[in-house]
UniProtKB/TrEMBL annotation:
This is Molybdopterin molybdenumtransferase. The keyword tRNA-binding does not apply. It holds the Pfam family MoeA_C. Its cofactor is Mg(2+). InterPro entries: MoaB/Mog-like_dom_sf, MoaB/Mog_dom, MoeA-like, MoeA_C_domain_IV, MoeA_C_domain_IV_sf, MoeA_linker/N, MoeA_linker/N_sf. Belongs to the MoeA family. It comes from Chondromyces apiculatus DSM 436.
Length: 414
């Protein structure tokens, strides 16, 4: 779709739902790569991993004591202990080589292989060993142990063939431990997207500068970069682009990253080149959304299908447009859930939240004594409205806001 809305304004605006449906249909998951387990935490498994061996793969002692045949201890009590011949020892990594006979026992420590012939472990607390200088040392059992007692059977933790992680699993620290215990050293995970932030605006100075004259300091690249990393982006590159069409075209066309975020220049002013350039080199799918703020937001696609997001320059609009459209797409590319990652809290409206039918509203709110208070703010250039707020309430297009006492869900900023 080619259209130049500059200085004409938006005739119609796309609903947020329709815009999201386009993104869902067109921005799929990236391919996968193999990474060593030490780098796999937080990554999303691209395929199911099954255990090729059981864990443990040998029966092992769960207590320090004596491996024996449970039957041999039947009837043993503190008053009538049963004597067993001590024939050796089994240590973790250094098993007992022989077999345990009917009235024999082997000294064993936790984690050591239970020798052939033995089926139970008598805890050291219930045994008395004869001094080791005895010719044929014996151990006295003061308690009976049934067969199986204190023996971890083969596959008790995990059976060979069982699923260890499912495809789509965001790997937890303990997943890495289980994978390693089955002999796995690396895992296939979904690639994390790279993101290029194109910052337009001749008035902008890079972060770290002191604002002076008519020049202000770029805030959007920091906000966008941090949001993209939150959403799983691997690398984030920032480029400052002059408000000239050729410069915007060169930057947008030359970006090799998986996603391009354009900050500013998205609206209908004569210097708003980004939508036009995108239409020239690719396709504008949406420009102008029924949402406040960030109504001039849009997005489209480069010829190879990579998404370009047109984010309004006003900092709150930029943040809002990112959260609505770019965030779900970046998460989706990396195999993460598209839904907003914010914690949510249900609260009662303490002061009326005003909205307009026909557009979604992104309302910054404070939570005071569990009551939701919308921040009175004059516009989308007031970035401190988002630092003073505890979170945001999204009012759908078919709601006229919420009256005092209504229950709403707050998406928390922290
Ligand atoms: N005739 C119309 N004018 C405007 C409309 C409209 O519908 N019709 N929409 C307004 C709305 S809403 C917004 S939002 C802005 C969006 O415009 P742009 O995306 O073209 O943004 P800029 O003009 O480049 O900048 C707007 C504002 O934000 C400041 N800015 C820009 N980049 C940054 C940055 N990286 N860090 C901090 N601040 C930034 C910039 O200096 C401007 O003050 O259009 C309205 N106009
Ligand atoms: O939405 Mo503009 O996006 O209000 O400042």
């Amino acid at each position: 779709m080619r259209r130049d809305v500059r200085m004409r304004g938006f005739r119609e605006r796309t609903s947020v739902e329709a815009a999201l449906a386009i993104l869902e249909a067109r921005v799929g998951r990236l391919g996968d790569e193999r990474v060593p387990l030490v780098e796999a935490c937080g990554r999303v498994a691209s395929e199911e991993v099954t255990a090729s061996v059981s864990v443990p793969h040998f029966a092992r002692a769960a207590m320090d004591g004596y491996a024996l045949r449970g039957e041999a201890t039947f009837g043993a009590t503190a008053f009538a202990p049963v004597a067993l011949q001590l024939v050796g020892a089994s240590w973790p990594g250094r098993p007992f080589g022989g077999a345990v006979g009917a009235r024999e026992a082997v000294r064993i420590t936790t984690g050591a292989p239970v020798p052939e012939g033995a089926d139970a472990v008598l805890m050291a607390e219930y045994a008395d060993e004869e001094p080791s200088n005895a010719a044929r040392p014996r151990v006295w059992a003061r308690e009976a142990v049934p067969p199986g007692k204190h023996v971890a059977q083969v596959g008790e933790d995990l059976l060979a063939g069982a699923a260890v992680v499912a495809a789509g699993r965001k790997l937890r620290p303990q997943d890495l431990g289980v994978l390693a215990s089955t002999g796995v050293g690396s895992v296939r995970v979904i690639r994390r997207p790279s993101v290029h932030i194109l910052v337009t605006g001749d008035e902008l100075l890079p972060p770290g500068s002191i604002p002076e004259g008519a020049r202000i300091v770029d805030a959007n690249s920091l906000v966008l970069g941090a949001l993209a990393r939150r959403d799983g982006a691997a690398e984030v590159t920032v480029t400052y682009v002059a408000d000239r069409r050729e410069a915007v075209r060169a930057a947008m066309g030359g970006a090799p990253e998986d996603v391009v975020l354009v900050s500013g220049g998205s609206s209908v002013g004569p210097e708003d080149h980004a939508p036009l350039v995108l239409a020239e080199i690719g396709e504008v799918a949406v420009h102008g959304v029924a949402v406040r703020p960030s109504s001039p937001a849009g997005f489209g696609f480069l010829p190879d299908g990579r998404a370009v997001f047109l984010l309004p320059g006003n900092p709150v609009s930029c943040l809002c447009a990112y959260e609505l459209f770019a965030g779900p797409s970046i998460r989706g590319l990396g195999g993460l859930p598209r839904a907003w990652p914010h914690r949510r809290r249900r609260c009662t409206v303490g002061r009326r939240i005003v909205s307009e039918i026909g557009r979604m509203d992104y309302v910054r709110v404070r939570i005071e004594e569990e009551r939701v208070i919308p921040l009175m703010t004059s516009g989308a250039s007031i970035l401190t409205s988002t630092t003073r707020a505890d979170g945001v309430v999204l009012v759908p297009a078919d709601e006229e806001g919420y009256g005092e006492g209504a229950e709403v869900e707050v998406l928390l900023y922290d």
